[in-house]
Amino acid sequence: MSGLTLDEIADTRDIHERAAEEGAATEDYSLRRVPATWRWSSWSALWSYSGLSTAMAFPLTAGLLAMFYGGEATLLAFLMTLIYTSVGVRHFAKKASEEGALEVLMSRQSFGFLGASYQLIAYGLLGAVYFALEGHVMASALTELTGWSEYVSAAIICLIFIPLSIYGMKFLSVFQGATIWLYVIGIAFVLVGVSSGWSAEVSSANAGEVWWQVNPNKVPFNWLTVLSAFGAISGVLGAIMILICTEQARFARRAESTKAALLFSTVALVICQILTPALGVYLLAATGGKMPDPGVSITKLMGGFGLALIVLTQLRVNVINVYFGTNAAENVFATAFKRTWHRTVYIVPFLAICYLIIVSPWLSKFGTIMTMLSVFLVNWVNVMLGEFWLLRERVGLPAWSEIRRGYLPKYNRIGLISMWVPTVVGVAMATGQFGPVAAALAVPLTGAAAFFLPWLLASLMSPDAVLKQYLSRVPESTKSLPELALCPIEGARHHRTDFVLCPFHGDKFISSTACAAEKSCGLRCQSGG
Questions:
Q1: Is the pLDDT of residue 202 over 70?
Q2: The CA-based dihedral angle spanning residues 474, 479, 482, 486, taken in that order and rounded to the nearest 10 degrees
Q3: What is the value of pTM for the model shown?
Q4: Do 126 and 320 form a contact (C-beta atoms < 8 A)?
Q5: 510 CB-near residues (< 8 Å, 6+ apart)
């Protein structure tokens, strides 16, 4: 295995002209690595990621948590989240650009080809939760302006995203780059309106000079409230940024991987984890501590223009939420059920689930739900980081992540135990049944356990046993193939690094997606039969 080079695993060509086969604009290579022909600059990748930075989920969450824990504790928790997230985003964005793989593909080696699908089910549903959080802001703003029922407003919001979600990353980059300036101008008007007293209900006069100390429930500022707020946001608005950054960074050219990692881990994160949360706390203070939802306060402040701004921000982020949610669904059905349906098939079912969440009373349990989701996300990221940093070099695993079914075991016990044991414990702690201290410590304690467990479990096993958890057999060299090889099963040409040597098909090289979709082989390549 040490003889394999990266150019046998990933398409390392440096190509500046983008060109892809038919359908790439909608599929975006969610089941295989992105080839060099479909890459662009690191700035273009950042634009497609910027929809997350301007999401109303950040000021909305900041406002809601400031109601629960106070403004000071909330902003300090966001600062802690920024420090944690920037380290992970820097690593994952660089890795994604170098290998051309998104997080759901990287997870296959860490948890096993089928084992990773359990996470992807939750991950896809998580996309629906994020959409619902953003959609709730849009629906409440629409209801505030029109007086329509929340059921009608939520339905309209969901329907809008059907045509917007058909096209993938190519559309995302253009859309985000074109609308970022409208967002900046709109937020500037919000700040001018608050300071100028356009509305008595949303005014700087209500905020006071120390607006960051807004604390409607008079909660004490201490380590317990800070960790409680950190637990609620470190995953759903922190670790999720580490995972999702791979969806966009994998399209940055390999030659710009370091630049992409720097842009993603600084510019994007400072905006979403410092500036926009501060805006949410400020707007809460400007309403006298009464309105944590910026969808309501901004609409009250600027009427129809405020509603347009809210809609714009939600359009920017929710096309990404639909994108990563449907990508996850495509991967689950491809790996677990051998159904290679296109990502767009899942758009309508995904939005139906989003609608049901929006109109349900889930926000009443906002803090608890967010903490549970944070446990799941932080543990997922930390298991992979612990594996990358503490384990791979020690046992002789390559730095790159294998994603092809023919070379992976169904389940990786090291990764699955490291992921799910701390997660079950953390979710139990997050319920609050064991007291507020246990709930506050749920994320940091179980996250630390998830980080060190891969190394600990591997140290109790022989080196050969550890390697078998990550690779069912040594990947075969593809240097004998032409640069663009024809798959005898699919009848399509792909870069040679995508191919797997298949004993079932007469020791021919077949594409990774043809390998993943094969139902009759009985994994002969792994059993030696």
A1: yes
A2: 0
A3: 0.82
A4: no
A5: 487, 488, 489, 490, 499, 500, 502
